[in-house]
Design brief:
Length: 327
């Protein structure tokens, strides 16, 4: 995304005094400093796994928290077939599939602690082998026991109790806040967006450096292909020689009260859908084969924002970040 191209038309959020008297105040349960992953804007949460210091990517785009096989082997965890009937398998954008899991005796971050939990193993067996401190992805299944708040310029992750007045979340008092309704489907946060005047479905994905449009949607809606004029090659995605991304600059991307001008977006082939197979997965009547979302809003956009996710309200609040992000 080109520098200096975010414009915002935020609506003020507030709660009336009468309403505030009938429910509890906002309660901070945990606050923790995150760090950037290498040279990217993706954030890593310091965690302890069975007492060992590690880091996990803060990832709202994954439906379940996942552990790298390398760390599971390092910690000598019992690796077995997943017993989670709702999440029989994990899948990544390269189409890799994992049905394996490991039981962790304790996982803690900030003031939050989980005990004796089963974590899926990341589908790419080589994930994080060259970065041994990186243990996997921390996602919705553990985070959404709380309201989740992040200012991406400071990298501070805060978890709040869900027991508060509806909409009464404005503790940081920016000039204005936008509130958007969200739908949680397949464990992902969906919002409607407008891309160059076309309404599309988007997922909020803090685990992705890039904002992405699936190549099938780019073809059908905008007539774009990797060979189209103005589309440039990005090369291999996630070091996968069989998965190549391309980039295209659109005119504008809007959601809620926010407009991103001239966003550079990755066109990504849909390797998650098994060639378009949308049939039910064997042995799991509730889980269908996943497809890449129309749009994935990544950290190249989100890094400019302060976000507050209130899962029980089905609301996503955004304001400008505390200070300008790097260009």
């Amino acid at each position: 995304m080109r520098a200096g191209v975010i414009a915002a038309l935020f609506c003020l959020a507030g709660v009336s005094g009468a309403h505030a008297q009938t429910c509890g105040p906002l309660e901070l349960l945990s606050s923790q400093q995150m760090a950037r992953f290498g040279s990217t804007d993706v954030m890593v949460v310091p965690v302890k796994i069975d007492g060992v210091d590690k880091g996990m990517i803060f990832d709202t785009g994954a439906d379940i928290t996942q552990l790298s096989r390398a760390v599971a082997e390092e910690l000598k965890l019992n690796i077995h077939r997943s017993r989670d009937r709702l999440h029989a398998e994990a899948r990544d954008v390269s189409g890799n599939i994992s049905t394996s899991a490991a039981t962790v005796h304790s996982l803690s971050f900030g003031k939050v602690r989980f005990e004796d939990i089963e974590l899926h193993l990341w589908p790419d067996k080589d994930f994080a082998r060259t970065t041994p401190l990186l243990a996997g992805m921390l996602s919705r299944d553990l985070l959404f026991d709380y309201d989740v708040d992040v200012d991406f310029t400071t990298g501070l992750l805060k978890l709040f109790s869900k027991d508060h007045c509806f909409g009464a979340i404005n503790y940081w008092h920016p000039p204005a806040i936008a509130a958007m309704r969200i739908a949680i489907r397949n464990g992902q946060i969906h919002i409607p967006v407008s891309l160059d005047g076309h309404t599309l479905d988007a997922v909020i994905d803090t685990g992705s450096q890039y904002t992405i449009i699936s190549l099938p949607v780019a073809r059908s809606v905008f007539g774009l292909s990797p060979q189209s004029p103005g589309v440039t090659s990005l090369g291999a995605v996630n070091n996968d020689p069989n998965l190549s991304g391309t980039m295209h600059t659109f005119a504008s991307l809007s959601f809620g009260g926010l407009t991103v001008l001239t966003p550079d977006m990755m066109l990504l082939p849909d390797r998650m859908a098994r060639g378009g197979d949308r049939s039910q997965q064997t042995g799991n009547r509730a889980l269908f084969n996943r497809v890449l979302p129309d749009i994935t809003i990544g950290m190249d956009v989100l890094r400019h924002l302060h976000i507050y996710l209130a899962p029980d309200e089905h609301n996503f609040y955004v304001s400008p970040a505390a200070s300008p992000a790097k260009p």
